[in-house]
């Protein structure tokens, strides 16, 4: 191996001994600034639409009556309402397909700032829907909130992964899931009748998506662009050093060395397109991993748990008017576990958390199936079912909910990462759409045994991660690539008699 490349393969645990273990204040504020207008919007717009359901349906009926002098049929009303809710998913898919491209053209920070245009436009349209009597504006507004969420879910983890020092990359990357859960909880709270949940306030409630957008536009410009983007994509060495100093403080030489080595490794390579990534056999295990993890994030049963939650709360004797407050408990539960995962990830590592999370979810699926099967056997059983709901949410937040996005960042180098996020995000949103369409039929067909399907998914993913995915804690992006590449190199040696090293192959 050439002398100049020997240092690439030295363990970062040795190189990290002089690095700070606590994030710089500026870094923490940059993470918050990126997240408040990013994944917070995703979580917020998922939950905030639930509170005004009956109010919006009444508005559609009144508007229909004014236009056509007749009440709307129940089937058409259901179709319109489901369109308002589900078009968010279509917008997310559109957003994620353009987010990666925008992150290369405008930069990570530039894309996040530009993305607020969609949130502000959506807030304006949904706010004007009632005074103008145009329920169609709700559909367009929800489409724009979906585009905003799709871009945020694609670009924000990119930005967080690239501004964080290696030793804190996992903890900083947890900002994605932490702010999703904070957004979900905020949407649940603000939708209470005591706040903006009253009928006359629903246009204001849906328009509050502009507040995080304004906050990000005020705060994020004070923080730098991703140092890796500045040096590797733009060749701006001075800008990179300035950004590193602001984000990491004076002791940022180690991070500069890592970025410079990655830049030297990628000399002559352009940012890859998604189809180029799919055709690259040298990273097929990384691609397979992120496709499986992002599909499993939606298909693992977390949506089914939330679907059954209201039924279980009712079965447990909780009055219908109190269920929204209990539902807030599920949001708070997921928020707490996301924060816990953020504190544990640099100690336990990614592999332990995500494998353990899926294993615990598998156990919860078994218990949940049993408690639903014998729901009427004893007055205690509904409460055991409720315990399973919270245990499942805790298990999801502890690993799969937070670590998936971090692994998508860590398994690829700079020129492949935006395309990887396009592929991962597309799989995630398509899986979200699929489970939304298929889940009602799964419940009708299997009833409580639907959780056996999720049991199979969770257990298979846990097994795959345990056997295939390496631990990425405290490793540079190049070291992670090399661990995945070792299997491919052995296969290449057996077929053409010549092995290739990480630094001499296309990444």
Automatic annotation (TrEMBL):
The chain crosses the membrane at residues 27-44, 79-100, 112-131, 137-159, 171-190, 202-223, 352-374, 380-407, 419-443, 449-469. Keywords: Membrane, Sugar transport, Transmembrane, Transmembrane helix, Transport. PANTHER family: MAJOR FACILITATOR SUPERFAMILY (MFS) PROFILE DOMAIN-CONTAINING PROTEIN, SOLUTE CARRIER FAMILY 2. It is a multi-pass membrane protein. CDD domains: MFS_GLUT_Class2. Its main location: membrane. The gene is GLUT11b. Pfam families: Sugar_tr. Residues 31-473 form the Major facilitator superfamily (MFS) profile domain. One of its GO terms (cellular component) is plasma membrane. This is Glucose transporter 11b. It is found in: Membrane. GO terms for biological process: D-glucose import; dehydroascorbic acid transport. InterPro entries: GLUT, MFS_dom, MFS_sugar_transport-like, MFS_trans_sf, Sugar/inositol_transpt, Sugar_transporter_CS. GO terms for molecular function: D-glucose transmembrane transporter activity. The keyword Translocase does not apply. Belongs to the major facilitator superfamily. Sugar transporter (TC 2.A.1.1) family. PROSITE patterns: MFS (PS50850), SUGAR_TRANSPORT_2 (PS00217). NCBIfam families: SP (TIGR00879).
